[in-house]
Amino acid sequence: MSDYLSTTERETREMLDKIGVKSIEELFEDIPADMKLKKLNLPEGKSQQETMEIMTALSKKNKVYDVILRGAGSYDHYIPSMVKNLSSRSEFITAYTPYQAEMSQGILQAIFEYQSMICNLTGMDVSNASVYNGANAAAEAMLMCCEKNRKTFVTFNNIRPDTLKVLNTYAHRRGITVKVIDAVKGVSDIASLKKELNDTSACVYIEQPNYFGLIEDAEEIGKAAHEAGAKFVMGCNPIALALLKSPAECGADIAVGDAQPLGLPMSFGGPYVGFMACTTKEMRKMPGRIVGETTDHDGNRAYVLTLQAREQHIRREKAFSNICSNQAYCALVASMYMSAMGPEGMAEVANACVSYAHYLAEGLESAGLKLKYRGDFFHEFVTECDKPADKIIKALDKAGILGGLKLSANEILWCATETLSKADIDRAVEVVRRVK
Amino acid sequence: MNLIFEISEKGKRCATIRTPDVKAAKINKKYLRAEKPELPEVSEVDFSRHYTALSRRAFGVDNGFYPLGSCTMKYNPKINEEVAALEGFTRIHPLQDVKTVQGALEVMDTLSCSLAEITGMDAVTLQPNAGAHGEYTGLLLIAAYHAARKDFKRTKVIVPDSAHGTNPASAVMAGFEIINVPSDEKKGVDLKALKAVVGDDTAALMLTNPTTLGLFEKNIKEISKIIHNAGGLLYYDGANLNAVMGVVRPGDMGFDVVHLNLHKTFSTPHGGGGPGSGPVGCKKELAQFLPNPRVEKTEKGYKFVNGAKSIGKVASFYGNFGVYVRALAYIVALGAEGIKAAAQHAVLNANYLKVNIEDLYPTEKGRHCMHEFVVSMQELKDKTGVSAMEIAKTMIDRGYHPPTMYFPLIIHEALMFEPTETENKRTLDEVIAALREIYEEAFKDPEYMKSAPHHAQIGRPDEVKAARQPVVRYVKQ
Amino acid sequence: MKILFRESHEWAAIEGKTAKIGISDHAQKELGDLVFINLPEVGAEVKAGDVLCDVESVKAVSDLYAPVSGKVIKVNEELESSPELINQDAMGAWICEIEVTDVPADLMDEAAYKDFIKG
Q1: Is the minimum CB–CB distance between C101 and chain A shorter than 8 Å?
Q2: Less Cβ crowding at N or C end of chain C, within 10 Å?
């Protein structure tokens, strides 16, 4: 059994004597006796070696693919060695929220740098210290935008299904209506949008690229939103932002997204990290922690948690959000990734994604699949074909390849990143070609 | 020290990737940004030194004593990090066929079942990403429960005045109105006041037990009866479960819904403020409302199921899976006895610290505390002008992380100590000596203490300036 | 013009049909350095005793109550970027102007208010 305690029996005895009790049990005398538990129905504790063996055995029950052609909200990218190595320093891992600025300048500065990078990537004025994940960032943005007389959240059916589900959950008990408009040819349609917008619309939310991988004409959507007096919120893939117009250039009031592609492993869906950035005008409504620069009493530069009066620990039931923690460690990893890659490296990764995705799309077309949408795409796209999606994915699985995600009986959502090579894609295409 | 932007030089490279061996595809120009984002450009050695320097200006449990009350800063076992980094856990896609991720589903199911046993609940979801997120999820379950019974008038959630700020904030997000109840003179829930506010509009009472004062709520049975007789439900904020796990279960105290914090009670690291994980457990009457998807064990293995009455999803995919791996490794290592021993030693350590300082740092008299205790420095402040905050700042000078300050709000000049079970006696003895010296110092040289810390990374920061003219990003000069 | 105070430390400087609203010097001292004020909305109808707006210090947020009933017709936007003006001159830094429909009888004049805060 492992217990991670660090008191010997002799020390325990000394401590009990000092407290003036005979046993540890006496310290629990406030708990009604009939309520107490006899014994937990759990296995006995294990040694460290056994624990390692048990957990390793569990990990081996999962299939790790050599080649991954699936994205849909979780992306396999190369994670630089220095990011893995430096982020594993235990000072970062075992620290708490930096409440005590005088001994937490490292964590505070790391968050300040993260905020700055997110601002530069999105073009927005202010970033918070991060929230749980991309879907929650969208939900928090929705709460920021809804006001007494504007409680309709407008979006399209080409956003990530998970995000839409989380938005619906958050909207339900707040009297917010989530209006989902049908996309046309996979993209958000201005004409349909204009018909839906009115003086009860709180905001318009689109994803860039959208769930089908298509690049949206975000500027036009933003204009339509603003003409109706609604806010414009963009959910962005941060790798794509290395190339695409920033949310600020598209007129967004709030930019959100999941920073998982920035150095975080897929890890079966989490932990990831939601980024949130907005214009100065919206700053005081933004949920979550924000780190600010100031000076100490000697005039030295210093960082602190700031604008705290927005938050739940002060505002309690009047807070805009209940959010308390951020995903500081994941945000640190994301900022390390951006530093390690730099603007050139980020653009190279994004370009490699685009090139491999287009090569994959051409290959699959040659193998008899058809692109469902003809619009510009980033690193994901949808195919349709007569061959059943299940059969294609199964054949790829046998070859050690995680195929695209089945969207319907004959539709598949594919993804390509810089982790692939020409040979990987050729091999995958060959497998698909042979599927009858 | 410099910001990474300030050591950036145009043209420097750190990580590099393979050049694509396919023809370059281009995106239509009209979608491209005008300029590349301004991100740091550094070499690998610049990078390594920068982040090493940042880490040296961070203070974690591995650095020293961290008695941050209500945060349960216990030691984070190294094996947890190693198992969570296994490729079989990190390099699996959340949308893989469940047949290819049976190990992952087994981790989730085993952890859920273990947490259900520890809390005395019938079902557990792991999905919420943090404690506050768990509260929100738990309250949505309560809302769904009343709505399913067509009991629509239950719009109010009762919250004691000693509660964490997240409690009322979460309840409002879940669409409830808040009723605050005061504490009685023993700092428990004032039963008279509670009786006066419960009624057929009561949806739930949110309670932390042990309370935020580190005391076990002795009237829990009576409270449970009052709430349940009124048709409301009892919500357990698991912030303080570390005091009682393996000893008494929230389910046996009468609670209907609980949330836990894997990053407090189950040793997963805090990471400077996250990622956390806030699983929610509930009694069987509420299980049908839990978030989708849920893991189910069948004869043919594990699968995901979606309930028709579910409140929906509260986070992407299945929540913070990597945190579950760590928490499960902890539970496997400790086992039934180890979990109870952790609670026992958390309480032992807190009481040991308390009895050794309570003559100077006054706290609730005549009772043993649980895993934490709250002292009030009001008297010291009246005598010397030295506040709770200044004691905290002086602790920094001595290399200790201060306790939680000014919480709960009902105690003046509060300091809340939670040493946790992993702290050793030698450190506690050192801290006791230090705290006693600090107390003396407040009389000898109060002015010096009022400007503490003197030997920290920075002196006291100007928080007013930070809030009045917020500078929240680096702007190139 | 007459200046009247509420027990919750707001003042109303009433002149004809309108009143400028602010907080007392005593309140300003108690609240400490103000870092932000959420100004009320122009056009809002308020009843005496309603929450009018709130002010933030670094570690606290405090509601301000309307000393009189009426409609908010003007707000002092200067305070949005310089909340410290309240700390510097509480009686000069008006927060908003209200078109008054009712003045409660229990407001105090300056002398009575001074006695009140002396306890």
Answers
A1: no
A2: C
Residue of B nearest to A20 (CA): B355
What is the location of CATH 3.40.640.10 in chain A?
81-336
**Residue B56 in 3-state DSSP?**
helix
Which of C38, C54, C59 is closest, CB to CB, to A308? C59
Rg of the Cα atoms in chain A: 25
Asked if the bond preceding B446 is cis, omega within 30° of 0, the reply is no
The answer on pLDDT for B401 being more than 90 is yes
For domain A81-336, give its CATH number from 3.50.50.60, 3.40.640.10, 2.60.40.1180, 3.40.630.30.
3.40.640.10
**What pLDDT is recorded for position C26?**
93
**B323-361 as b/e: b if 16+ CB within 10 A:** bbbbbbbbbbbbbbbbbbbbbbbbbbbbbbbbbbbbebb
Average pLDDT for A70-86:
98
* C78 inside 8 A of chain B by CB: no
Q: Under a CB-based contact definition with an 8 Å cutoff, are residues A262 and A233 in contact?
A: no
Closest Cα of chain B to C33: distance in Å?
7
Of B39, B325, B465, the CB nearest to A295: B465
One-character DSSP codes across B102-155: HHHHHHHHHHHHHHHHHHT-SEEE---SSHHHHHHHHHHHHHHHHHHTT-TT--
Domains, chain B: 4-23+33-56 (no CATH), 79-334 (3.40.640.10), 342-463 (3.90.1150.10)
The answer to whether B467 faces chain C, any CB pair under 8 Å, is yes
Containing structural domain, residue C71: 2-118
C18 to chain A, any CB pair closer than 8 A? The answer is no
Q: What backbone torsions phi and psi does residue A186 show, to the nearest 5 degrees?
A: 85, -15
At B456, which helix (H) or strand (E)? none
Number of domains within chain C: 1
State the pLDDT at residue B358. 96
Interface test with A, best of C33, C36, C61 (most A CBs within 10 A): C61
Amino acid (one-letter) located at B303 = K
Closest CA relative to residue C23, chosen from C11, C34, C38, C35: C11
**Over the stretch B35-53, which tens digit does the pLDDT of each residue have?**
999 999 999 999 999 999 9
Any CB–CB contact under 8 A between B464 and chain C? yes
Q: Which residues of A touch B34 (CB under 8 A)?
A: 245, 249
pLDDT, position B184 = 87
Per-residue pLDDT tens digits for B136-154: 999 999 999 999 999 999 9
* Separation in Å, CA B173 to CA B142, B143, B169, B339, C48: 13, 12, 6, 33, 28
Q: Does domain A67-78+343-434 have CATH number 3.90.1150.10?
A: yes
Mutate to test the interface with A, among C38, C41, C56 (most CBs of A within 10 A): C56
Q: Identify all chain C residues contacting A284, using CB atoms and an 8 Å cutoff.
A: 36, 38
Residue with tokens 């460690």: A329
- C-alpha to C-alpha distance for A247 and A125, rounded to whole angstroms: 11
What is the ipTM metric for this complex?
0.97
Determine contact, residues B245/B265, Cβ cutoff 8 Å.
yes
Name chain B contacts of C36, Cβ cutoff 8 Å.
467-468
B463 near C CB under 8 A:
yes
Are A135 and A274 spatial neighbours (Cβ–Cβ below 8 Å)?
Answer: yes
d(CA B358, CA B365): 9
Best mutation target among A308, A311, A320 (most C Cβ atoms within 10 Å) is A308
Are C98 and C73 within 8 A, CB to CB?
yes
Domain of C97, CATH number, reads: 2.40.50.100
